[in-house]
Amino acid sequence: MSLNTGSNCRSKNSYLNQFRWFLPLLLCSFLLSACSNLPPIRTEAQVDLNRFMGDWYVIANIPTFIEKGAHNAVESYQLDDEGNILTQFQFNQDGFNGKIKTYNPKGFVWDKTSNAVWGMQFIWPIEMEYRIVYLNQDYSQTIIGRSDRDYVWIMARTPQISEQTYRKLVSIVRDQGYDTSQLVKVPQQPLSIRKNNKSH
């Protein structure tokens, strides 16, 4: 019987690398939670998980340290058989042609009534709060926030949205108690350019 030690070592190294990347983020999150007196952030009353699945382009965010310099950032969701959310977060580092970074956290629905409050697990067993703060009627734009008001993500089904729509979403973020001066727009190429790049 082959033990496939090379594959086991690669899996272990991959796990350790992810832990090394996310440990500062997790520690920072815990410290902010311990010091925060802010009320829980408001969320959508009801989210249809099946409609929410799929690709979401990150239009702007208050970035975590791993997202700084991200281009073409896309968060993709897929429901598994147990009702949890398999997630892929992918972007190019520091430029449209930069190295592709991929992370695969797993989402767990905490609030089964609204489906709007999740725990996002990068490293077992720690789950970080994930709240669907805003979702428009046709499920084409969303805002993900946290009660600590430390990170936020404005996302859409398309890589670009109108400036008027963007300003509206920023005002929702502000009304939720965030300092919107910390928001950073994420550079996103049009889909036609991405398809052309992949075909060459």
Characterise this structure.
The model is unreliable at 1-16 and 27-35 (pLDDT under 50). This protein is 28% helix and 32% strand. It has an eight-stranded antiparallel barrel. The chain has four helices and ten strands, in the order ααβββββββββαβα. A hairpin with a 6-residue loop joins strand 3 (85-93) and strand 4 (100-103). The radius of gyration is 18 Å and the shape is globular. The chain starts with a helix and ends with a helix. It is an alpha+beta fold. The relative contact order is 0.18. The protein has one domain (49-195): Lipocalin (Beta Barrel).
Shape: globular
Q: Report the CATH topology name.
A: Lipocalin
Please report the first level of CATH classification, the CATH class: Mainly Beta
| H-E string | HHEEEEEEEEEHEH
Give the strand tally. Answer: 10
> How would you sum up the major sheet?
8 strands, antiparallel, barrel
Mean pLDDT level: 85
Overall helicity? 25-40%
C-alpha-based Rg, rounded = 18 Å
> What structural category arises from helix and sheet content?
alpha+beta
Beta fraction of the residues?
A: 25-35%
Domain count, please report it.
1
- The number of distinct helices, counting runs of at least 4 residues, comes to 4
Q: Report the oligomer.
A: single chain
CATH superfamily: Calycin beta-barrel core domain
CATH architecture: Beta Barrel
Distance between the termini: 43 Å
**Uncertain stretches of 5 or more adjacent residues:** 1-16, 27-35
